[in-house]
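We close this part of the discussion by returning to an individual protein. Part of our work consisted of pairing the sequence of a single chain with a tokenised description of its backbone. The amino acid sequence and the backbone structure tokens for this protein are reproduced below.
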Amino acid sequence: MQFGLYAPIPMATVGSPEIVLAAAGALDPLPAGLRDGQFEHGLELLQAADASGFSLCLFAERHLGSDIAAWVLASAIASRLNNIRALVAVHPGLVDPVMIAKLSASLDRVCKGRMALNVVNGWFDEEFRMFGGEVLAGEPRYARTAEFIAILRGLWANEKFTHAGDHFQVEAGRLLLKPASPAPPEIYSVSRGDRGRDFIAEHCDWWFIDYPKTAVEVADVLRGIEDAIADMSGRASRFGRKVRFALNPFVAMGESRQAAFDATIERILTAEENPDPRKITERMMPATRAGCIGTPSEVLAQLRRFESIGIELILCKMIPTAENARLIGAELIAPMNAGAHV
């Protein structure tokens, strides 16, 4: 089992006073000699996570926001780490795929072959328009992203690559800098609908499984995930491929399930600096129903259930502190890794 976490930024982080403070001062000059708090907090957290057994960090991207750009943050932090893979979010339709191919190769080389891409189709019309792109709906969005991925892989693998598509055209494109590893950077993505699942099955290496919308109990979540894995495995086999599976539960531990909930979720919900409602209702609360809030033994047992049905990566939603990263490393990652070698 692999374990990952999110880089702490305003768009992706809850329960962090440091990130709230950094976002509040985003429009003001920094005091002389100081760096942005997102970077400082992210560096402390990820260095602790790197030493605690985590193997991946998702650098999410919100262009129209107070977040430090994902490529900048990933380059500045991940190059200092020894084990964590930098998973950088990218939006097809906002940045040219040839440029992303070059940025990916560059980051891969400074991270010793430990970078990957999280491909996000995007929904934020204002952001896309502001930064020179266009949000597409339905079939065109998947066709554009499929072309985007084909260009990346073509440029990484070939001396020259030409692509004449409906959305992108590349004539004898070439990179004079290739990724660090012979195997190309992996592609991660998430999609709920039927067409989106076909896209994942045909083009992506990893799928972040979404939580069943009707799930209330942990047993419902498990059944829904099992069904999703079976469905995706069948789709991928029809393309002669295999897809690997990831999940992003909220992880919190305490003396009891209620104590763990009160110290994390309840604290976030009642905080004066409560983040925007979309983060809570759409991004965090479904993740709390995955059964990874409780005593260390309860959470460990649930992770082993996920592993037994085919989940290979746990991307932890968590209170982003170095102490919490070390706790997860000691109570969950180390036992899971030890169990894999028994």
The CA atoms of residues 22 and 212 lie 34 Å apart.
